[in-house]
Design a protein that fits this description.
The complex is a heterodimer of chains A (about 280) and B (about 210).
Chain A (H helix, E strand, L loop, with lengths): L8 E3 L4 H10 L3 E4 L5 H7 L6 E4 L4 H4 L2 E3 L5 E4 L4 H5 L2 H6 L1 H8 L4 H4 L4 H7 L6 H7 L3 E6 L2 E6 L4 E3 L2 E2 L6 E7 L9 E6 L10 E8 L2 E7 L6 E2 L1 H8 L4 H11 L10 H19 L4
Parallel strand pairs in A: 1-3, 2-3
Antiparallel strand pairs in A: 4-5, 5-10, 6-7, 6-10, 8-9, 11-12, 12-13, 13-14
Chain B lengths: L2 H13 L2 H7 L34 E7 L2 E7 L5 H8 L18 E4 L2 E4 L12 E3 L1 H6 L4 H9 L9 H14 L5 H7 L10 H13 L5
Parallel strand pairs in B: 1-5
Antiparallel strand pairs in B: 1-2, 3-4, 3-5
Classes of the chains: A alpha+beta (about 280), B alpha+beta (about 210).
Bound molecules: flavin-adenine dinucleotide (FAD) and FE2/S2 (inorganic) cluster (FES) (2 copies).
Chain lengths: ~280, ~210
């Protein structure tokens, strides 16, 4: 069923202060960045509230991808997938992010949708989140009360739940300098078709002498890092032993896109593929 | 933000009228000027300085479409797709899925392809919007249109305006695309009749003949 759009209200702040003031004063205000989730909900009357805050007017402040002098990278709340995917520093240092942006929707979505919207939306199938988890991303959350920095891996608290309070907005994704060489990284999305498909399973991983990262989508109520499997691999576990542990860290379900059984098989195949591919780079 | 929590608040808020709702949160009257160049005839100035708000009533905006500045009166929630089709009678932009998946509603915004069904019209003020009509009348793109005709690329033709718009942008981005680049570049456009091979051939042949200007 469609939402009765005639009842909807949209506000369009022109400054960051105005945006944060609105978040403090107006309850239930749903931010819109690229709108590629929110406008779909309006068609389904799903999750949809009736007051919206279009952040579009803040593009001058928040649409950027910035390589900082200290080696970190900042991705503003309104930077699109295309802004990220074609950015020279991202291409050089964060290949998993380039690959995950490339396989998100299709170009018409990538020119509008934002990685910050992908995170805030909280879908367990979000394609850029595993990549960002591998890179130890942090989020800047801002309200009139101040700003705080939250580790992406601590951001989600349950299915579509997170630590953000109703007066906050995510203003930036911060990526530390990469720990891994491109050849030590691996991304894999398994969907129904190449473009415009939501993942059945999605994986981003990296491994070097410095550490192991295994991040998964669509295998649990949130995107996850498989911390126990990472620790085991770090301590020398082989592929079979790693799979034994990973099995207990994931909780795939049957839903409209796939089955728990298929997801388990694919997760195992991807884990083995990743460990084989990287066997020579350690 | 927690969906459940949020929808509770929202439901409570929306049982009251809009004006009552805004009062409830300390804004004396609903009102607004939203973006530069945008004015709201019928509403008064906001009670809280600096806090701009608007509701579901119509507002006057101006959009630059195919080179012309066009004035229109829309409700803030109106998508660019609806504004183009119902307010500006530019029906070359097709509404097919209305959920970002098919590419039928593709337009160019400052030269980049976007789905107009996922875009609010109010956010597009000050941007250069190009629709299939704009591509059709631009002599620089005539070789592309001709190539679609020569290759008989349309069956029912409903997907073609969106595909034409996306192909036009693609040939600007990559003047000599490989077959794979054409397929990847057009991956966001669905053709229910399945004339893909002719569509891809039309784009490839146009590029080989000198492309678009
Ligand atoms: C056809 C189609 C294909 C798609 N394919 C994929 C895919 O392959 N992979 C994938 O992962 N996703 C996909 N998506 C989903 C969507 O495009 C992404 O999740 C996208 O990143 C959402 O970003 P947005 O800016 O458009 O978000 P919006 O729709 O604007 O917002 C999404 C959520 O984030 C909140 N939000 C946005 N910005 C902020 C902020 N600054 N602070 C706090 N909250 C905020 C919004 O309130 C909302 O809850 C697809 C969508 C469509 C329509
Ligand atoms: S109608 Fe917009 S993508 Fe299908
Ligand atoms: S020609 Fe009919 S949908 Fe493409």
């Amino acid at each position: 069923m469609k939402t009765n759009v005639a009842e909807l209200q949209v506000c369009s702040p022109r400054s960051i202060d105005e945006a944060l003031q609105q978040r403090r004063d107006i309850p239930g205000l749903t931010p819109i960045a690229g709108g590629t989730e929110v406008l779909v909900w309006l068609n389904d009357a799903k999750f949809a509230g009736k007051t919206y805050q279009s952040l579009h007017g803040l593009a001058k402040d928040w649409r950027y991808v910035r390589a900082n002098k200290d080696g970190t990278l900042g991705i503003g709340a309104l930077a699109t997938y295309s802004d990220v995917r074609f950015h020279p520093v991202v291409k050089e240092r964060y290949p998993l992010l380039v690959e995950s942006a490339r396989v998100t929707g299709a170009l018409q979505i990538q020119n509008r949708g934002t990685p910050v919207g992908n995170i805030a939306n909280g879908s367990p199938a979000a394609d850029t989140v595993p990549s960002l988890l591998v890179y130890d991303a942090k989020l800047k959350l801002k309200s009139l009360r101040g700003e705080r920095l939250v580790d992406l891996k601590d951001f989600f608290t349950g299915y579509r739940r997170n630590v953000m309070t109703s007066d906050e907005l995510i203003t930036e994704i911060v990526l530390p300098p990469p720990l891994f060489m491109p050849a030590q990284q691996h991304y894999r999305k398994v969907g129904t078709r190449e473009a415009q498909a939501i993942s059945k399973v999605v994986f981003a991983g990296a491994r070097s002498a410095a550490g192991v990262r295994l991040a998964w989508g669509s295998l649990a109520p949130t995107t996850i890092r498989a911390l126990k499997t990472e620790a085991a691999l770090q301590n020398g576990a082989d592929a079979n032993a790693a799979w034994e542990i990973l099995q207990r860290e994931i909780a795939p379900i049957d839903d409209i896109r796939s089955t728990a059984e298929y997801r388990r098989k694919v997760a195992r195949n991807i884990l083995f593929e990743f460990l084989n591919k990287l066997a020579n780079t350690l | 933000m927690h969906d459940d929590e949020q929808s509770d608040v929202q439901q409570a808020a929306f049982r009251t009228s809009r004006r009552g709702f805004l009062k409830g949160v300390g804004i004396a009257s609903a009102a607004t000027v939203v973006l530069p160049g945008l004015s709201l005839g019928q509403e008064e100035a906001a009670g809280t300085p600096g806090l701009k708000e608007f509701g579901s009533g119509p507002l006057e905006i101006s959009l630059k479409v195919n080179g012309d500045e066009r004035k229109l009166s829309i409700e803030p929630r109106t998508t660019l797709l609806d504004a183009l089709r119902t307010k500006l009678a530019l029906t070359g932009t097709k509404e097919i899925c209305d959920r970002g998946s098919c590419g039928g509603c593709t337009v160019l915004v400052d030269g980049r392809a976007m789905v107009s069904c996922m875009t609010l019209a109010i956010d597009m003020q000050g941007r250069e919007i190009t629709t299939a009509e704009g591509i059709g009348k631009d002599p620089g793109f005539a070789p592309l249109v001709d190539s679609f005709c020569e290759h008989d690329a349309a069956q029912c033709g409903f997907c073609i305006p969106g595909i034409l718009v996306r192909s036009a942008a693609l040939l600007k981005e990559i003047p000599n695309p490989t077959p794979l680049e054409i397929r990847e570049g057009l991956a966001g456009n669905i053709c229910r009749c399945g004339t893909y091979s002719r569509i891809f051939d039309a784009v490839e042949a146009c590029a080989k003949k000198g492309g678009v200007a």
